[in-house]
């Protein structure tokens, strides 16, 4: 089944987590992954079996993500994570 293929030895788990305090490009992209239902790029690539995440060339921000139910999230070139949402973003350490 698909589920057993996702779990396995290649399943990298984070060692710790803290919340973002100030906005940055990295926090912006984590915000986008977490909106789509993933921890971060590591988990997204494991679940979706993709090598590359589509980004805006101008800003480097994520352009689109596929959720676990296979619907797509599309994001703007500009910042979407507002200051009031920065503290909600989880930053994982591996």
From TrEMBL:
Signal peptide span: none
Domain of life of the organism encoding this protein: Eukaryota
GO cellular component entries: nucleus
Pfam families in the cross-refs: Meiosis_expr
Described function: Essential for spermiogenesis.
Annotated family: Belongs to the MEIG1 family.
Official protein name in the record: MEIG1 protein
